[in-house]
Design goal:
Layout: E1 9-12, E2 27-34, H1 39-53, E3 55-64, E4 72-80, E5 83-94, E6 97-106, H2 110-122
Antiparallel strand pairs: 1-2, 2-6, 3-4, 4-5, 5-6
């Protein structure tokens, strides 16, 4: 089974009074890992990991992201705590280093969180390790 690395950063929304007990907290997760392959190979590996590790995954779209640092944008649904979870994943790849920025919220929270989560994700850039 293909498995992505552990998250390096997770930022979650505070618990809100309107959230049901055990409800899903919207969040942004960032991972980085060495990846010597191409964008196509990275997309394939990440899609395979998602499809084999999530409960009832449903891939909505996989698109190139022109004019941004991200090289692919994947949107998908899966079952999780709090019911149906909506995720958007941005893939970044530069000089053998891959990064993922994943935003997640309950599908019924998408209207409230989509814009802010998207803005956070789109602000991600790969930092060149050679210059600190």
């Amino acid at each position: 089974m293909i498995q992505l690395p552990e998250a390096e950063l997770v930022v979650a929304a505070p618990v809100a009074p309107w959230m049901d007990e055990g409800g899903f907290r919207p969040n942004v997760t960032v991972t980085t890992f060495a990846f010597p392959g191409t964008v196509t190979q990275l997309s394939t590996v990440v899609m395979a990991a998602l499809l084999t590790s999530l409960a009832d995954p449903y891939l909505l779209s996989v698109d190139p992201v022109p004019h941004l640092e991200a090289v692919r944008r994947m949107e998908y649904l899966h079952r999780g705590s709090g019911g149906l979870i909506h995720c958007t994943l941005l893939l970044l790849l530069e000089n053998g280093l891959a990064g993922t920025v994943t935003t997640s919220c309950a599908a019924n929270q998408l209207g409230a969180y989509d814009e802010v989560l998207g803005s956070i994700a789109l602000s991600a850039t790969m930092k060149d390790s050679s210059n600190g």
